[in-house]
């Protein structure tokens, strides 16, 4: 009995020592929060792949202020409730910087927690304008806003001189936000918006909607939302002989839409951030991704890479690991990243971010149209 | 003219979706009719049917089979076999051990079953949408007016005909066969049927299996009709089918059929003439209204107070 107590005490002592050693080793922990599972998990893959690569390369180059970066990955399923849970988990793990979240509806509640707890957050994907309208000090993004993307899409539609346009959205923050921006741009330009209607995300049957589009006799359909619904709408529309041109935001621009819509995806128009992976100065980086067998063509791979890099650069420039100091440095400086020269405004949004209209093809490739 | 065509098109859309609601609703209503409980895992059984059919179709395609009737038959059989075994297993795991306890217990265990199956498919098949090949392509076109043409796709016709055949076979089965008669006896009085020598356990299993088989048929049909499946495929469809069963009078098989059709048409008319946003609002308001004036549903029999 006595010996076993002694052994136990030894074991406890040893493990306590180990834990202390773990903490003593200098490291900067960066939370990476996005969907690993759920309906939009493929966007999460882009985010995790970009962030992991940035951490790997920064560490290989000696880390930040001599300390190594460590990624703490959590899954928010793109669900606002889950986002709050994982945000609290990151707080408890002592994380001071977060790259995430992906969906605007997750970023919004999670950012409240980060702001309260003094954690600096950079979202590489959330485009809802409301997120940065709350005057948060520790919130940044490496992506454009719906309010920038909507007008790009709207102006493109106007340039095609359509007679009547239908604007459909999925009633979620992201989809409805962009759809509203598109509708307003169209109205201002005097284009008739024949339909402005919401659908339920997760629905499968769009036959009634398609019939309505057909009857409204529109030549352009804009859809604000994600690919699972648009894929089905496209497929069902083509089966019902609807020949209107379809257009969507970057939430529909990934290869999964081809799995769902098949041939019907041919000719779909998508507004996307420019293909950063085609820039000559990024070819080294693209080669590094390819060496790991990873794809850089997704819209959020390099924005996530840039988010991690900005945290690292911010710390270097502030000369401190205090998130408030880092935030000040980020607002003050100009940074060279794979997504171009980044300069933040007071709200934490990028001073300029470009969106380009692409035409999508049924084999999953895309070509620029402007 | 265009208005009439538009109306007919929305009617066709509504009847198509309604008949598949009816197919799924049968599973809810039969189980309720016999043991007085709701099988909340039924939507998942339907989803598994769709996945199994897709796996069978993909498998046959890699084997080089190109003869459509054979592909459909094999896919249908595989879906029915896998879904029926699932239906049977759900009864054995989630219902039989707790039968006769408080009514809430099997309800909760069925919801647990539903969450388990959904997440199992998430893990086994991934959470992404998987494309379903359009095996039955093309459509009939009727009268054209101001560029609007009425179209009735071969797939919609397949759905109508298959649903009709399933309903006729089921009605004959219930009214003519030995098991069917036993089913009716058990639904009238489980204890008495037991005393009279009916193996009630077998009959309850049979009910789950029949319901699951019909859900598998609906899974294959809707997988092809919509063109993609995902692990949440069964959730909304299950909810709607359950509503259809309650609307028609839960426990009544013709009621489930009627309820499915009414719900489908109500939904498509709402999104056709009002707005897609109000589709579910109208469908569920209809349910509340009918239950207010006829609490047992359209064709449900009032429950006789047993003394």
TrEMBL record, chain A:
Entry superkingdom? Bacteria
User: Where does the record locate the signal sequence feature?
Assistant: 1-26
Kindly give the Pfam families that the UniProt entry links to this protein: Peripla_BP_6
Query: Mind listing the UniProt keywords for this protein, alphabetically?
Result: Amino-acid transport, Signal, Transport
Entry annotated with the keyword Iron-sulfur: no
Which sequence ranges are marked TM in the entry? none
Please give the coiled-coil regions recorded for this protein: none
| Any GO BP annotation | amino acid transport
Entries under InterPro entries matching the protein: Leu-bd, Leu_Ile_Val-bd, Peripla_BP_I
Where does the record place the Leucine-binding protein domain?
Answer: 27-363
* Claim: Transmembrane helix is one of the keywords in the record: no
Which family does the UniProt entry place this protein in?
Belongs to the leucine-binding protein family.
- NCBIfam families documented for this protein: PRK15404.1 (NF011933)
**Protein name per Swiss-Prot or TrEMBL:** Branched-chain amino acid transport system substrate-binding protein
Naturally occurring in which organism (per UniProt): Marinobacter excellens HL-55
Q: Which gene encodes it?
A: livK
UniProtKB/TrEMBL annotation, chain B:
Kindly list the biological process annotations in GO that this record carries: D-alanine transmembrane transport; L-alanine transport; L-isoleucine import across plasma membrane
Residues spanning the membrane: 20-38, 45-64, 70-90, 102-121, 154-174, 203-226
Coiled coil region boundaries: none
Which CDD domains does the UniProt record give? TM_PBP1_LivH_like
Write down a Pfam family by its short name.
BPD_transp_2
Gene Ontology CC: one annotated term: plasma membrane
Q: What membrane topology does the annotation report for this chain?
A: Multi-pass membrane protein
Q: What does the UniProt entry say about where the protein is found?
A: Cell inner membrane
Which keywords fit this entry according to its UniProt record?
Answer: Amino-acid transport, Cell inner membrane, Cell membrane, Membrane, Transmembrane, Transmembrane helix, Transport
Matching InterPro entries, A to Z? ABC_transp_permease, BCAA_transport_permease
**Which molecular function term from Gene Ontology is one that the record holds?**
L-phenylalanine transmembrane transporter activity
Q: By its UniProt entry, which NCBIfam families does this protein fall under? A: PRK10740.1
Similarity-based family = Belongs to the binding-protein-dependent transport system permease family. LivHM subfamily.
Q: What protein name does the entry list? A: Branched-chain amino acid transport system permease protein
Encoding gene, per UniProt annotation: livH
